[in-house]
Design a protein that fits this description.
Elements: H1 31-52, H2 55-71, H3 73-79, H4 82-100, H5 106-110, H6 112-126, H7 133-139, H8 147-152, H9 161-165
Helix pairs in contact: 1-2, 1-4, 2-4, 6-7
Length: about 170
C-alpha cells in the first residue's frame, strides 16, 4: 500500500517502503571519479557560468557533463588524457546548449570586453579629426580591425561631414 492511498490516521510508510532501496542510497561511484568531480566541479561551473550568465544554468549543464563523463569514465581513463577528454565534453555541452537556445555566450553579450569597446566607440565618436576618421570608426558596429569584415561593413568608405567639407 502506498502512502497516497493509506487510510486517514495511518502511520507514515517506512523509509523507502515499496520502492527500490537504491533510490535512497548514494551511488557507488569509483573513488577516482569522485575525486575528479570534486577537483573539477568549481572550474567547470565557472566556465559554464561565464558562457550562460547564471549559476543555475551552469550547474544544470555541468551536472549533465558529469553524467556523460561518468558514462565514459573507463574509456576516458584509457585514452591517457583525461583532462583533455573531460574539457572536450564540457565545451561541447556548453556549445550545444547555446546553439539550442540560439544565443551568444553571456560574456559576448555583456562582458567587460564589450563594455570597453562600447566606451571606446563613444569616445571615438566625440573626438575630432580633420578627416573625420575617429567619428567614422566610432560609428562602425561589429568587429573593427579584421580586414575583410571592416572593408565590408557599413562604415567602409563612409565620409563624415567634416571629411566632406575638406
Amino acid at each position: 500500500m502506498s502512502h497516497y492511498n493509506a487510510p486517514e490516521g495511518a502511520p507514515p510508510p517506512e523509509y523507502g517502503a515499496g520502492r527500490s532501496q537504491s533510490m535512497y542510497l548514494p551511488l557507488e561511484l569509483p573513488l577516482d571519479f569522485e575525486a575528479f568531480c570534486l577537483g573539477h566541479q568549481e572550474v567547470f561551473h565557472a566556465y559554464a557560468e561565464v558562457h550562460f550568465g547564471t549559476r543555475a544554468v551552469a550547474e544544470e549543464v555541468i551536472h549533465e557533463v558529469f553524467l556523460q563523463i561518468h558514462a565514459g569514465w573507463t574509456q576516458l581513463l584509457s585514452t591517457g588524457n583525461l583532462e583533455q577528454g573531460a574539457w572536450a565534453i564540457v565545451r561541447r555541452a556548453v556549445h550545444d546548449r547555446l546553439e539550442r537556445e540560439r544565443r551568444a555566450p553571456a560574456f559576448v553579450i555583456n562582458g567587460p570586453i564589450v563594455q570597453a569597446l562600447a566606451a571606446a566607440r563613444d569616445k571615438l565618436k566625440k573626438m575630432e579629426s580633420s578627416s573625420g576618421l575617429y567619428e567614422a570608426i566610432g560609428c562602425c558596429e561589429g568587429r573593427i580591425g579584421s580586414g575583410a569584415e571592416s572593408r565590408g561593413s557599413s562604415c567602409a568608405g563612409r565620409r563624415t561631414s567634416s571629411a566632406a567639407a575638406r
